[in-house]
Amino acid sequence: MGLIRLLIIAALIYLAWRVAKNLLSQTGSRSNTGTDADRDGQAMLKCAQCGVHVPAPEAFTHNGRHFCCQEHQRLYLEHHER
Predict the structure, then answer these.
(1) 57 vs 13, 17, 32, 51, 82, CA distance in Å?
(2) For a surface tag, which of 8, 24, 63, 72 has the fewest beta carbons within 10 Å of its beta carbon?
(3) What's the pTM?
Protein backbone atom coordinates (compact mmCIF):
# COMPACT_ATOMS: atom_id res chain seq x y z
CA MET A 1 0.00 0.00 0.00
CA GLY A 2 2.90 2.38 0.76
CA LEU A 3 4.44 1.94 -2.72
CA ILE A 4 1.19 2.81 -4.50
CA ARG A 5 0.77 5.93 -2.35
CA LEU A 6 4.36 6.96 -3.12
CA LEU A 7 3.81 6.51 -6.88
CA ILE A 8 0.59 8.57 -6.79
CA ILE A 9 2.33 11.39 -4.89
CA ALA A 10 5.26 11.33 -7.33
CA ALA A 11 2.85 11.45 -10.29
CA LEU A 12 0.97 14.42 -8.78
CA ILE A 13 4.21 16.31 -8.14
CA TYR A 14 5.32 15.67 -11.73
CA LEU A 15 1.99 16.87 -13.15
CA ALA A 16 2.07 20.00 -10.98
CA TRP A 17 5.61 20.73 -12.19
CA ARG A 18 4.58 20.32 -15.86
CA VAL A 19 1.54 22.60 -15.44
CA ALA A 20 3.63 25.28 -13.69
CA LYS A 21 6.34 25.08 -16.38
CA ASN A 22 3.73 25.39 -19.14
CA LEU A 23 2.07 28.39 -17.49
CA LEU A 24 5.40 30.15 -17.00
CA SER A 25 6.42 29.61 -20.62
CA GLN A 26 3.09 30.99 -21.87
CA THR A 27 3.41 34.06 -19.65
CA GLY A 28 6.93 34.73 -20.95
CA SER A 29 5.89 34.47 -24.60
CA ARG A 30 2.96 36.86 -24.12
CA SER A 31 5.13 39.56 -22.58
CA ASN A 32 7.39 39.64 -25.67
CA THR A 33 5.05 41.08 -28.26
CA GLY A 34 7.72 42.97 -30.21
CA THR A 35 9.70 42.00 -33.27
CA ASP A 36 11.81 38.87 -33.68
CA ALA A 37 14.86 40.87 -32.69
CA ASP A 38 13.18 41.88 -29.43
CA ARG A 39 12.23 38.29 -28.64
CA ASP A 40 15.71 36.94 -29.33
CA GLY A 41 17.42 39.77 -27.54
CA GLN A 42 19.38 41.27 -30.42
CA ALA A 43 19.10 42.17 -34.08
CA MET A 44 20.98 40.26 -36.76
CA LEU A 45 22.71 42.24 -39.51
CA LYS A 46 23.70 40.92 -42.95
CA CYS A 47 27.32 41.29 -44.02
CA ALA A 48 27.50 43.38 -47.22
CA GLN A 49 30.47 41.32 -48.45
CA CYS A 50 29.50 37.66 -47.85
CA GLY A 51 25.85 37.76 -46.73
CA VAL A 52 26.40 36.07 -43.35
CA HIS A 53 24.14 37.35 -40.56
CA VAL A 54 25.90 38.47 -37.38
CA PRO A 55 24.55 39.87 -34.09
CA ALA A 56 24.41 43.68 -34.15
CA PRO A 57 26.92 44.16 -31.31
CA GLU A 58 29.50 42.06 -33.20
CA ALA A 59 29.04 43.72 -36.61
CA PHE A 60 31.38 46.30 -38.10
CA THR A 61 29.52 49.25 -39.65
CA HIS A 62 30.67 51.80 -42.21
CA ASN A 63 28.41 54.28 -44.04
CA GLY A 64 25.29 52.31 -43.19
CA ARG A 65 26.71 48.97 -44.39
CA HIS A 66 27.36 46.11 -42.00
CA PHE A 67 30.16 43.54 -42.08
CA CYS A 68 30.92 40.32 -40.19
CA CYS A 69 34.64 41.13 -39.82
CA GLN A 70 37.12 43.90 -40.54
CA GLU A 71 38.62 41.93 -43.43
CA HIS A 72 35.26 41.87 -45.26
CA GLN A 73 34.81 45.56 -44.55
CA ARG A 74 38.24 46.28 -46.06
CA LEU A 75 37.58 44.10 -49.12
CA TYR A 76 34.19 45.69 -49.74
CA LEU A 77 35.56 49.21 -49.46
CA GLU A 78 38.47 48.40 -51.81
CA HIS A 79 36.14 47.15 -54.55
CA HIS A 80 33.08 49.40 -54.16
CA GLU A 81 34.28 52.80 -52.97
CA ARG A 82 36.97 53.98 -55.34
Answers:
(1) 43, 37, 21, 17, 28
(2) 63
(3) 0.49
